[in-house]
Amino acid sequence: MATTFELGDFVLQGGATLRGAQLTYETYGELAADKSNAIVYPTWYSGRHQDNEWLIGEGMALDPSRYFIIVPNMLGNGLSSSPSNTPPPYDRGRFPNVTMYDNVEAQYRLVTEHFGIERLPLVLGWSMGAGQTYQWAVSHPEMVERIAPFCGSSRCSYHNKVFLEGVKAALTADDAFQNGWYTSMPTKGLRAAARVYAGWGFSQAFYWDRLYERLGFSSLEDFLVGFWEGFFLDDRDPNNLLTMLWTWQNADVGRTPGFNGDTKAALASIKARAIVMPAEKDLYFPPEDEAWAVQHIPNAELRVIPGVWGHFAGNGINAEDTTFIDTALKELLAT
């Protein structure tokens, strides 16, 4: 059962104050008496804590019998403070912009104030969770010992921003959206956003090989409706999606206070041992983007996840990719 940490009046990087802000989280395992076994594993774009459970289990790197795994829900995901659950005046279409830095500062308060943890053996995450992982290592280098960002980046590339403009346009074009003040769910916009996403989440080779059939879908259209439209219509609120989209689109560890927008300097400040795992055919975060980041991190290794599953190599739906990620995590934790 997820728990809520009260952040109180939480001042965002952009200057707005979320009054009565909340961070909802789940934990797995027990915190050691010396508080030395805590791992932070943030959520991703629209994901909730339970969506991270595929990488947690007995015999895996994230074994709850050994580690205390904290999965904080990202601001804007509908569980932590979001447009859909915040009272006026910052409700719905008026919800303020939230940065990666804001998310990590909320999580830092949870980890330090609530649990009294001073060191983290590992921070990891997929997609936007990877962005938060990088941010943790830059914001709190003295605290984070290891990081494993997979299928995600330290800053949003221009190509990625263009893709997100397509998602944004689809969500906001629905007449029912009403600039974020809708009274009924803008399902046309959600279905359109799903179709935009469908061309990016998996690789061209995934579709060529008709691997959607391995996921239980009988045709391409069945996959587009059953997987993608079903995903976006499953309790996803458009204002929440747009809040997280802004966070993603404006992600850049160089915007951390003290770095003046210098992404290279921010990456160079990371003290954690890092294994960075892009997917071979990820259309959002291609391996060359993360190769660029790795060359600026003092103690980092690039390890490309092979195969054709694209961005979803890091989502736990393909056993081979899950094994690849878990093996790397075991090696990282053993160092």
Automatic annotation (TrEMBL):
GO molecular function, one term: hydrolase activity
This protein's UniProt keywords: Hydrolase
Chain segments annotated as coiled-coil in the UniProt record: none
UniProt-annotated catalytic positions: S127 (nucleophile), D282, H311
AB hydrolase-1 domain: residues covered: 61-313
Gene3D superfamilies: alpha/beta hydrolase
Recorded superkingdom: Bacteria
Pfam family membership, one: Abhydrolase_1
Protein name: Alpha/beta fold hydrolase
Originating organism: Actinomadura spongiicola
Lineage: Bacteria, Bacillati, Actinomycetota, Actinomycetes, Streptosporangiales
